[in-house]
């Protein structure tokens, strides 16, 4: 009995559709054209603009630097600008106006900027002199200076990518040399 009722309902729906003329070949073609143009408008347009607007950034290769290998990253010849703060190497190329050649803070480019930032000083003796010696242990900094340094670090972490770590030449040799 159920089967008969089901069958009758099915036939009724088909007759209604046929008499309303929904399933004609012309309507099928029109529906296909409509679907195609909707697809072209929304999907293809969106994906091509996505491609140009959201080009993936170049991959960041995290490396270990020493004061000497960091030195060339001073922005000369349109190259990248890096500096280190308490062992973290930041890519500050986006702040080229500050740190690049001729910028007000170009003394920090390619260097360990920790002490200079902590003390708010551009003096030469703020920078590690012996590039093959130990890193600046930041001895002798007061509470205010350490707080100032932390403030800078927080700002840089928000603004720039960390692209590596800074270690002394000795530490670098120990980690990569023959065991
Ligand atoms: C006469 C004193 C100074 C003036 C007028 C000055 C002015 C400025 C200005 C206008 C900015 C841009 C702020 C922004 O747009 O975010 C800036 C940023 C900065 N300043 Fe100074 N500054 C002075 C001293 C110093 C000193 C003594 C240091 C450290 C040694 C320093 C380190 C920096 C750094 C690291 C930035 C941030 C750049 C960045 O966002 O990457 N400034 N300064």
UniProtKB/TrEMBL annotation:
Gene3D superfamilies: Cytochrome b5-like heme/steroid binding domain (3.10.120.10). Keywords: Endoplasmic reticulum, Heme, Iron, Membrane, Metal-binding, Receptor, Transmembrane, Transmembrane helix. It is found in: Endoplasmic reticulum. One of its GO terms (cellular component) is endoplasmic reticulum. Its main location: endoplasmic reticulum. The chain crosses the membrane at residues 20-43. InterPro entries: Cyt_B5-like_heme/steroid-bd, Cyt_B5-like_heme/steroid_sf, MAPR/NEUFC/NENF-like. Residues 65-167 form the Cytochrome b5 heme-binding domain. Coiled coil: none annotated. Belongs to the cytochrome b5 family. MAPR subfamily. This is Membrane-associated progesterone receptor component 1. It comes from Drechmeria coniospora (Nematophagous fungus).
